[in-house]
Amino acid sequence: MNDTLGTDVAAEIEAGLATLGERFRGAFAACNSEPELRAANAAILGKKGELTSLLKLLGRVPPERRREIGEQVNATRARVEACFSGRLLELAEAARKADLEATPFDLTLPGRTPAPRGHLHPITRVKDEILDNFRSLGFEVAWGPEVEHESNNFTKLAFPPDHPATDMQDTFWVHVAGAPPDARLLLRTHTSSVQVREMSTHAPPLAIVSGGAVYRRDDDPTHSPMFHQIEGFLVDERVTFASLKGVLSEFVRRLYGPNVPVRFRPSYFPFVEPGAEVDIGCVFCSLDDGTRTSCRVCKGSGWLEVLGSGMVHPAVLEHCGIDAERYTGFAFGLGVERVAMLRYGIPDIRLLFENDPRFLAQF
Ligand code: FA5
């Protein structure tokens, strides 16, 4: 059958195939990059490509010749495709070879080591260890905020207003515009504020321990403006100073070793009565035979202060709504940095906060 326009479509296709011939081989070989090659391929096999246009005519070829012409077109297409794939591979290999030659493999380069693993900061470790110690003695862990009400940090702990005792812990005040003067906020100066929070919201018996950051206007090799404390207290009927001595002696021995000597020394905190400082035998200079070498850490005294403690002042219990006739309690507080510095022999507290990886990697 002839085309309606009188053209012999089969002849047109054959002429087209002849024109195309093997020309694509030269065209592909002349391409020196993949995009170039793909463009040359599209000019033949793309939507408007030379061979595609011939293929579109196939439907108009008389049925008796369609198969034969179709086979010719398909054979050409197969040759184009094979030639294209071959050249694509050649280009990829050439690119890889060029790359290898341009950046030769350097056997002396160090291997790719995995990123070094971090670990908990020594302060976090010591804090967790102390909290765990008290947990195993039956204490529950509680939490309190770092921005605190003056009443929880001072007033309810029996610090009288403007009493010099307030100067013991020089305070960072938090100024809130428009806040009433009787609702002042501060950065807590100790974790004893957690005593007030817990005692005001829970009825005895209470055995609570808490740890976290506290703030004071302090800055020297053993005092930092931000440091960490652990606070604990136990309130129940018939709690005595003997209970305090028993629990704290056991705790200190767990922390510093079973044979370390412990002593209780009278001391003053407004929120306890009586108050006691807990000292341990200097772990740096005490010799096994009981004698001592001269020591910078304990300044030759043979004792190191590790805890503040005392019986909870009845006024504090009453401020928190606890019947001081019926209940008594003891409380204690300690500095986490001090424990870490003693344990690891760290001479300057600031090393703990500079976060120099060369220092931290030693723990
Ligand atoms: C108190 O803060 C009391 N709240 C502790 C307490 C609790 C006593 C319950 C009785 C009952 P003190 O001010 O001594 O006490 O601080 C406790 C510890 O915190 C100190 O022994 C010391 O180890 C540590 N400490 C105090 N100031 C700093 C500071 N600026 N930097 C690092 N550690 C500090």
The assigned CATH architecture of the largest domain is: 2-Layer Sandwich
Sheet having the most strands: 7 strands, mixed
Q: What is bound: which ligands?
A: adenosine-5'-[phenylalaninyl-phosphate]
The CATH C-level name of the largest domain is Alpha Beta
Description:
It is a single chain. This protein is an alpha+beta fold. Helix 1 (9-20) packs antiparallel against helix 4 (50-57), helix 2 (23-30) packs antiparallel against helix 3 (34-45) and helix 2 packs parallel to helix 5. The chain starts with 8 loop residues before the first helix and ends with a helix. It has 13 helices and ten strands. The radius of gyration is 43 Å and the shape is elongated. It is 40% helix and 18% strand. It has helices at residues 9-20, 23-30, 34-45, 50-57, 63-102, 122-136, 150-153, 193-201, 241-256, 314-319, 336-344, 351-354, 357-360; strands at 140-142, 147-149, 173-174, 185-187, 206-215, 226-236, 262-267, 272-281, 303-312, 328-335. It folds into two domains: 2-101, no CATH class; 122-360, Bira Bifunctional Protein, Domain 2 (BirA Bifunctional Protein, domain 2), CATH 3.30.930. The chain binds adenosine-5'-[phenylalaninyl-phosphate]. Adenosine-5'-[phenylalaninyl-phosphate] (FA5) binds at residues 169, 190, 192, 216, 218, 223-224, 227, 229, 231, 269, 272, 308-310, 331-335, 337-338, 349. Residues 169, 190, 192, 216, 218, 223-224, 227, 229, 231, 269, 272, 308-310, 331-335, 337-338, 349 line the site of adenosine-5'-[phenylalaninyl-phosphate].
